[in-house]
Amino acid sequence: MFSKNQLPGLTKLNIRLRNNVFYILIVCYAFVQNASSSSSCRIKWGSSLPVWYPLVFNNAGIIYPHRTGNNSDWSLLIEHNGDFNISCTTAGDFHGYNVSDLKVHCHGATHKTIVNKKPVDFSKLGCKKHLQEKLVAVGKCYNQSTSVDILFQAKYKRLPLINICHNENLDDTIFAHHFIEGSALNKFEVSNKRPTFKEGIFYTKITANNAYKQTSQLKQVESLVCSESLAKKYIDKKRSFYFARGHLAPDGDFVHVYEQNATYFYINVSPQWQSINNGNWKALEFAVRTYAKDRNAKLEVWTGGKNVLKLEDVNGNPVEIYLSKEHKGKLVLPVPEILWKVVHDLARNASVAVFMINNPHLTEVPSSLTHCSCVCPQISWVTWDIKNIIKGYTYCCEIDSVKKLLPFLPEIKSGQLLT
């Protein structure tokens, strides 16, 4: 057996190793403790919700629910220190509190919500009334049009929902921009009630609601094509040939009922033939949502109309169709010739532009209305009849091929096709 004097280096090495192991154990323990304390706090969500659901948010924005198990198990995941905010905006105060905004803490170990240092059942934190959105002009956009946010105003924070580029001179919306939170779309907050469309601070020289009435459409088209009988062929309710209020950012793309209700502004619609709005356009909206839900994807979406629809007058001459005119005779609220939607999957960096011809009266689609080599056959979720003119003739484009056609879009890096 060797003595200490014989192997002094080995003994010192053993001591150093033991010290290092002890240090590593301390570091690992501290890491685990820190990870545990900063892990998500989970609030059960879904079957028992506040009657009037509040804004739930932190510095990053609205906190949406997510599936945490099977499809019936939903939770709000509160990250980091467990602090978040809730607000009733301008809808009044919370039940049991005389304030419109509250700070809430979610205790990580117990998953309990705490207000003013007292445990509170989250389902009891409801507002006295439903939330009210605001329409706020925030600057300028394409061609000196007005950039407008449909948003929710908490006490100290604005939470935008939809951004709209609106031409006030023509009462024409160029595009609407919004996001779809695919992982948060759920069965618990689906409203079957359709709110009345609102003009907000726009349409000051006409009444948008009157312009969309079928009797007004018939009278307006008659004045443009100079023939009552021809106008009745164009505007034919039995064939769904009339102009509907076609959502740009549709209510079904949003999670909460208060968000869905906030989509009902006239600046968030475009005149679409009803046969198309309830046909292939509806199929497109549903397909995009299904893509987002099935893949738990967050999608960035732009939607709008392009050019002005032309119909032949009594002499066979093409005339542009507008739904209204100002008292001085100026034509406003144009009907788009082409409808379009650009969809970008942020995680995959995949995108596509989908176009639809807004004219069911065509017998064939002229080449002047198609602006790219169609890639619809490569897209698995485009399952409707893309050649059906009455329901909406459809073609799909790669983003790079439509940048000149849609110059107001931000730069979208060329990734893969959204298949």
TrEMBL record:
<feature type="domain" description="DNA/RNA non-specific endonuclease/pyrophosphatase/phosphodiesterase">
    <location>
        <begin position="158"/>
        <end position="402"/>
    </location>
</feature>
<feature type="domain" description="ENPP1-3/EXOG-like endonuclease/phosphodiesterase">
    <location>
        <begin position="186"/>
        <end position="402"/>
    </location>
</feature>
<dbReference type="GO" id="GO:0004521">
    <property type="term" value="F:RNA endonuclease activity"/>
</dbReference>
<keyword id="KW-0378">Hydrolase</keyword>
<dbReference type="GO" id="GO:0000014">
    <property type="term" value="F:single-stranded DNA endodeoxyribonuclease activity"/>
</dbReference>
<keyword id="KW-0540">Nuclease</keyword>
<keyword id="KW-0255">Endonuclease</keyword>
<dbReference type="GO" id="GO:0005634">
    <property type="term" value="C:nucleus"/>
</dbReference>
<dbReference type="InterPro" id="IPR020821">
    <property type="entry name" value="ENPP1-3/EXOG-like_nuc-like"/>
</dbReference>
<dbReference type="InterPro" id="IPR040255">
    <property type="entry name" value="Non-specific_endonuclease"/>
</dbReference>
<dbReference type="GO" id="GO:0006309">
    <property type="term" value="P:apoptotic DNA fragmentation"/>
</dbReference>
<dbReference type="GO" id="GO:0005743">
    <property type="term" value="C:mitochondrial inner membrane"/>
</dbReference>
<dbReference type="InterPro" id="IPR044925">
    <property type="entry name" value="His-Me_finger_sf"/>
</dbReference>
<dbReference type="InterPro" id="IPR001604">
    <property type="entry name" value="Endo_G_ENPP1-like_dom"/>
</dbReference>
<dbReference type="Pfam" id="PF01223">
    <property type="entry name" value="Endonuclease_NS"/>
</dbReference>
<feature type="binding site">
    <location>
        <position position="277"/>
    </location>
    <ligand>
        <name>Mg(2+)</name>
    </ligand>
</feature>
<dbReference type="GO" id="GO:0046872">
    <property type="term" value="F:metal ion binding"/>
</dbReference>
<dbReference type="GO" id="GO:0003676">
    <property type="term" value="F:nucleic acid binding"/>
</dbReference>
<feature type="active site" description="Proton acceptor">
    <location>
        <position position="247"/>
    </location>
</feature>
<protein>
    <submittedName>
        <fullName>Nuclease EXOG, mitochondrial</fullName>
    </submittedName>
</protein>
<comment type="similarity">
    <text>Belongs to the DNA/RNA non-specific endonuclease family.</text>
</comment>
<keyword id="KW-0479">Metal-binding</keyword>
<dbReference type="InterPro" id="IPR044929">
    <property type="entry name" value="DNA/RNA_non-sp_Endonuclease_sf"/>
</dbReference>
